[in-house]
Design a protein that fits this description.
alpha/beta, two-stranded antiparallel sheet, 13 strands, 576 residues
């Protein structure tokens, strides 16, 4: 039985088709393994680089004509495959252009006809490593569909191997010397790793399965395929060199996962290298070859994620143009929708979380300076970015309450119905419960927030306020002490601790805390009020008058407020 092959590589084209630098290298690599007496041991291997239509058709015709009964004929093609609007396949020649592709390309029907004419008791293998394009009336496009090559190429006694059946996916591997599919075809033969049934020979189906597994590890969206008219047909292509290096490769494949070798597997491999006398250079080569597909895939995923993050930071939500560009990048990287969905979910979530926090902090600052309308906008934006942002509902509720808007109750109820996950979530629900009058229940949320994040002063402060509301002033002072230990300039804690001390009749301590609050915030009306009450309680009328007069001055445009009226009452009482 004779074994004959024709290897065709087309790298240069007319207008409309990009060059494929890998095609001649693909042919050279296939020539090397097929001619090798220890591997393919083919009797005759011919090559055609950048042929025109006549040379390509003649070469194909002569290959299959020359195969006699029992012979094996192998046709390999690396180059552009073009499909028309009826999904008919054409193999491009160097004269193929966008406008005349049918006139200057070899149709699949021609190859099928030649193989069928010479199929009697012969074995044929057709390997197509194609970059597909689709041609339509509206222009030169890449279709996002699979094409059915089987009816166009299958012949009795033949096996057809294709690098991809998707018109958008089979790209050159720009990082390597060879096209991706051909690289693993050659690697499967040279290493012997494609041999899987223990007979020492590599069949077409074993070779394809090896290449397919590695191609899809590197670029999951590529869809290598194999078909024959008679299922289960085995055509032997090459011998497999079975040695300790091959056994070592199988071990590496066993312990490899996501571009790395398992920790225990590393120890096993080290022992085997010593036992089998495999050098570091050889073992490193084998390990890199095995790990390379997963590493390429992970690198592609990382590139897509970085591009998506930059696009999201530039503009969000993404516009239609950017979405289209990302789709193009996905196709070039050979990634499936299922591959990028977790990335898109993660990046979108991270961006929304980041923006939600940004709007929330802005809203807190606006609420602090009583810019209520702007605070409402910021808190609403935060909730829009993260609809589960519990504390944003609580603070928007506080803002509505400051405006005497009934919407406050709705926001508090949303927060109360939520299911906290973080310390901040528990704080938000606690605030909402407190505002709705469920003070005791708010304590359990504040306790959980403190347990989750004991370094956050805000939880202690809120718990102190709730405890004070329940009349436990001494307990609230303990929490304010913790706050001021963490954050020594926390005005609210000095104020609340001073008020608690006032109710405990520790007027000296109250006056000290309230004075500190006033130094930090000179317009703090409540601090003046309770310091005035403490001074009045210890019969220091002059000091009390100073405090109540300060309130009258600060609230001169709010004379209808309770605290203003009380200050005026005490001024009159003290004879001021």
């Amino acid at each position: 039985m004779a074994k004959k092959a024709l290897l065709i590589g087309v790298s240069q084209y007319e207008a409309g088709l990009p060059p494929l630098a890998a095609a001649p290298k693909d042919v050279a690599a296939m020539l090397r393994v097929l001619q090798s007496p220890e591997l393919g041991a083919f009797d005759e291997v011919k090559t055609l680089i950048d042929p025109d239509l006549e040379a390509m058709q003649t070469g194909i015709d002569l290959l299959f004509q020359s195969c006699q009964k029992g012979d094996l004929g192998l046709l390999y093609f690396s180059g552009h495959g073009i499909t028309d609007d009826s999904d008919r396949l054409y193999l491009a020649t160097r004269r193929t252009s966008k406008d005349t592709f049918k006139a200057n390309s070899v149709p699949a029907s021609f190859i099928q006809g030649i193989m069928r004419d010479h199929s009697y008791q012969r074995q044929h293998v057709l390997i197509l490593d194609c970059c597909y394009s689709g041609a339509f009336a509206e222009g030169w496009l890449a279709k996002s569909v699979d094409i059915n090559l089987k009816p166009q190429l299958e012949v009795e006694g033949s096996v057809v191997l294709t690098s991809s059946t998707s018109t958008q996916k089979s790209y050159e591997d720009k990082e390597g010397e060879l096209s991706l599919y051909t690289n693993y075809i050659v690697q499967g033969i040279e290493s012997g790793a494609a041999e899987s049934d223990g007979d020492g020979m590599i069949s077409a189906d074993e070779l394809h399965e090896y290449a397919k597994r590695h191609v899809q590890s590197a670029k999951p969206a590529m869809k290598p395929d194999i078909f024959s008219q008679k299922q289960g047909i085995k055509i032997l292509i090459s011998k497999a060199i079975v040695d300790k290096k091959l056994e070592y490769r199988h071990l590496v494949e066993k312990y490899a996962h996501n571009g790395e070798i398992a920790i225990v597997g590393q120890e096993i491999l080290e022992l085997r290298r010593e036992q089998w006398g495999i050098s570091d250079e050889v073992s490193n080569t084998i390990e890199n070859e095995v790990l390379e597909p997963d590493r390429k895939r992970l690198k592609s995923l990382d590139r897509y994620q970085r591009a998506l993050q930059r696009a999201t930071q530039h503009k969000f939500p993404l516009d239609e143009s950017t979405i289209g560009h990302l789709k193009d990048l996905q196709e070039v990287l050979g990634l499936r929708d299922d591959d990028i969905k977790p990335i898109e979910d993660q990046v979108t979530y991270q961006y929304r979380e980041s923006r939600a926090i940004e709007f929330f902090e802005r809203g807190r600052a606006e609420l602090q300076r009583e810019d209520y309308q702007q605070a409402l906008i910021s808190f609403t934006e935060a909730i829009s970015c993260n609809p589960n942002y519990i504390i944003a509902y609580a603070f928007r509720g506080l803002t509505f309450k400051s405006l005497n808007d009934e919407s406050a109750k709705e926001d508090f109820q949303v927060a109360v119905r939520s299911f906290p996950q973080t310390g901040e979530d528990y704080l938000g629900r606690g605030i909402a419960k407190f505002q709705l009058g469920d003070v005791e229940s708010s304590l359990s949320d504040y306790n959980e927030a403190i347990r989750i994040k004991p370094s956050d002063h805000y939880g202690y402060y809120l718990r102190g306020v709730a405890i004070s509301q329940l009349g436990d002033y001494a307990g609230s002072i303990n929490d304010y002490n913790v706050v001021l230990h963490i954050k020594s300039d926390h005005v609210e804690s000095y104020l609340e601790r001073g008020i608690a001390k006032y109710f405990l009749e520790d007027h000296q301590g109250a006056s000290s805390d309230l004075s500190r609050a006033i130094r930090l915030e000179p317009q703090n009306v409540q601090a003046y009020y309770f310091r005035g009450l403490s001074n009045r309680a210890v019969y220091n009328p002059q000091a009390a008058l100073v405090d109540f007069r300060a309130i009258v001055k600060l609230l001169e445009n709010q004379s209808d407020t309770y605290i203003y009226q009380q200050a005026q009452k005490y001024i009159a009482e003290l004879g001021g």
